[in-house]
UniProtKB/TrEMBL annotation:
<feature type="active site" description="Proton donor/acceptor">
    <location>
        <position position="335"/>
    </location>
</feature>
<feature type="domain" description="L,D-TPase catalytic">
    <location>
        <begin position="250"/>
        <end position="386"/>
    </location>
</feature>
<feature type="signal peptide">
    <location>
        <begin position="1"/>
        <end position="32"/>
    </location>
</feature>
<feature type="active site" description="Nucleophile">
    <location>
        <position position="354"/>
    </location>
</feature>
<dbReference type="InterPro" id="IPR005490">
    <property type="entry name" value="LD_TPept_cat_dom"/>
</dbReference>
<keyword id="KW-0961">Cell wall biogenesis/degradation</keyword>
<keyword id="KW-0573">Peptidoglycan synthesis</keyword>
<keyword id="KW-0808">Transferase</keyword>
<protein>
    <submittedName>
        <fullName>Ig-like domain-containing protein</fullName>
    </submittedName>
</protein>
<dbReference type="Pfam" id="PF17964">
    <property type="entry name" value="Big_10"/>
</dbReference>
<dbReference type="InterPro" id="IPR050979">
    <property type="entry name" value="LD-transpeptidase"/>
</dbReference>
<keyword id="KW-0133">Cell shape</keyword>
<dbReference type="InterPro" id="IPR041280">
    <property type="entry name" value="Big_10"/>
</dbReference>
<comment type="pathway">
    <text>Cell wall biogenesis; peptidoglycan biosynthesis.</text>
</comment>
<dbReference type="InterPro" id="IPR038063">
    <property type="entry name" value="Transpep_catalytic_dom"/>
</dbReference>
<keyword id="KW-0732">Signal</keyword>
<keyword id="KW-0012">Acyltransferase</keyword>
């Protein structure tokens, strides 16, 4: 579980200073970042006879390291001296990676994330109090796509969403170290609501509170996956924070028997709209459904969701469905409908499972019910269907984990103690 208290995950980042420009200028002159001290004539003999520098350079990663992390995988420090020059370059392109020195010139790290599957060369020069130089050089290669994972997240950073929006992570690799990965997700809420994760599969992890989000809640999500093993030979590369705001509370209830939808905002009935739900042959799912997409117009072809005729063609193919909002991954939408007569809404359930509202072709008339509901809905708003002859929507079909009882939800967390 998570609460509103944020942990400190990394040491403070060294300050960026103007000295770095001088460091790279020295490198460009050929007196810093070289593999060996300058040679030739009597200089080499004199340096060989001189006492060694007291400066001791430490570099992470080791020389010839492979699968190095992209965010915090490269660090340079020096003891008993200061860093005089640091140069990090991509082996193939020769591009130089900018970095930052600490104020005391004893630490350095790259400014930006490195590229995946790329070879790098790092050359470092330091000096001790007597001005004697020390050198270290390493080459390494960053983690490849085959050996790394990322989590694609919903909702978008900076968005305002409805009270039903979960935090959903979809990984590009199968995760076997589920407890470690789940523990690396920190969710902080201004409302103080505790949030628990649930693994729907090895590639999908959702988080939600026990009840809908409180309206106005500010949510911050911290993904600390960089360098974390998600499966044997597969490490994370993300060190990412995103946030979103929960807007007003809007939950709409569709009664498939009465063919009416009641829109409730912040506890007050906003409007009641006549609808047409799924027919007896193709009823609409019951249950709580979260709006996951919005399209002012979109194409709907029955063949994409299994509704085909004897020739394999879609039973319907409507290229300009107005004001469509997705409720499930399997193709359930609530949308405007211009092809049915106005007498249909509130009287007949005639769809293939979607919820239809009166509308016009072209989505131009803002007075239509379809347009009004679209304009007054957020991603994350909840549409609950009752009294339909079909079964309940599966929790993993879209963002609909609210259809799972809380005790089952927390049992799907890799961090839950039996």
């Amino acid at each position: 579980m998570r609460d509103g208290k944020r942990r400190a995950r990394h040491a403070a980042r060294p300050a960026t200073v103007l000295l770095l420009g001088g460091v790279l200028a020295l490198t460009a002159c050929g007196t810093a970042g070289d593999d060996t001290p300058p040679s030739g004539g009597g200089t080499e003999a004199r340096e060989a006879a001189a006492p060694a520098s007291a400066a001791r350079i430490t570099i992470t990663p080791d020389d010839d390291a492979d699968n190095v992390g992209l965010n915090d995988g490269v660090q340079v420090s020096v003891a008993d001296g200061t860093l005089d020059a640091v140069r990090l370059t991509a082996v193939d392109s020769g591009d130089t990676v900018a970095g930052s020195l600490s104020a005391d010139r004893t630490r350095w790290q790259p400014d930006d994330r490195l590229e995946r599957a790329t070879g790098y060369r790092l050359a470092v020069r330091a000096v001790d109090a007597e001005g004697r130089t020390a050198y270290e050089n390493v080459t390494f290669r960053t983690v490849s796509p085959d050996n790394s994972f990322i989590g694609h997240f919903t909702p978008e950073d900076g968005s305002t969403v409805g009270v039903g929006m979960p935090v959903s992570l979809n990984f590009d690799k199968e995760i076997t170290e589920k407890a470690a990965v789940e523990a690396a997700v920190e969710i902080n809420t201004s409302s103080g609501q505790e949030v628990t994760g649930h693994w729907f599969s090895g590639t999908r992890l959702d988080f939600r509170p026990q009840e809908y989000w409180a309206a106005g809640t500010e949510v911050t999500v911290d993904l600390d996956f960089d360098g974390l093993q998600g499966a044997p030979g597969v490490t994370g590369i993300q060190d990412r924070t995103f946030s979103f705001t929960v807007g007003r509370s809007q939950v709409s209830t569709v009664d498939a028997r009465t063919k009416q939808m009641t829109v409730v905002r912040d506890g007050q009935v906003l409007r009641t709209l006549p609808i047409s739900a799924g027919s007896d042959e193709n009823p609409t799912y019951n249950g709580q459904m979260v709006i996951s997409e919005k399209h002012r117009e979109t194409r709907m072809n029955g063949a994409t969701v299994g509704f085909t005729d004897d020739d394999g063609e879609g039973e319907y193919d409507i290229k300009d469905v107005p004001h469509a909002m997705r409720l499930s991954s399997s193709g359930t939408f609530i949308h405007g409908n211009y092809w049915s007569g106005p007498e249909t809404f509130g009287a007949v359930n005639a769809s293939h499972g979607c919820i239809g509202l009166a509308d016009v072709q072209g989505a131009w008339d803002e007075t239509q019910d379809g347009a009004w509901f679209y304009d007054n809905s957020l991603l994350g708003d909840v549409v609950t269907v009752i009294n339909s002859p079909d079964r309940e929507m599966a929790p993993d079909n879209g963002l609909n984990g609210w259809n799972m009882p809380w005790h089952q939800w927390i049992a799907g967390s890799a961090l839950t103690t039996p």
